[in-house]
Design a protein that fits this description.
about 270 residues, alpha/beta, TIM Barrel, about 15% strand
Amino acid sequence: MFVDSHCHLTFPELASRLPQIRDAMAAAQVDRALCICTTLEEFDAVHALATGYDNFWAYDNFWCSVGVHPDNEGVTEPDVGTLVALSARPRVVAIGETGLDYYQMDERKGGRTVADMDWQRQRFRTHIRAARAAGKPLIIHTRAASDDTLAILREEGEDGTRGAAGGVFHCFTETAAVARAALDLGFYISFSGILTFKSAQDLRDVAAWVPLDRLMIETDSPYLAPVPYRGKTNNPSYVPYVAQLLADLRNLPVQEIASQTSRNFERLFKLENS
């Protein structure tokens, strides 16, 4: 019924509890999940999740991505050839997560300036070029960097036309203007448990009008558990809370949100006949 389009099941908080998480997913009717790669060093473990649980409920239900998160430093730097080669492996359906993160430059990045983040911008371009070469969509992370994120996508030809990779802006927290720009470029918008937070009214206002056929849901677990689990370790079984909030915003049955976001997931990641 539900799909978690973005989770980090190899992170220690979740990896040690996979059997329990799978049981919780089954109970919550979360029947599919996309496991996200954040370094090349962890790719084999992420890929093993996508290929190692193929009898879960008698059919395959985990897929994965390949990419290097924009915040990760001191890790193997990706190149186009490596990303394309790894993306050709079974059950790898996306490139990322990738993008730009300028959040808290003083606290989190040692007082560096945006100008100092050119390595992030170059890494982002590498992922975009790999996605176009591989014909697989991008998973976009953007935080306090939406202008540069959108500008680089445009510069690299990501305008929704033939040959564009497309993709999804995951864990969306930006403004309505950014959402419109992303949609205009052909991207999907994915909302996380942040949508349920009391302080997120502006985000709920955006979520209320994003077209149903461009909408996705996620947990970004182990982070950002939705109300009523805020502050606890998140996991894919909580994604129905995001769907319910979206249903309430639109006066729709939650089953309709589940069905539409599942179809969107299948369409974006080319799983419609899988």
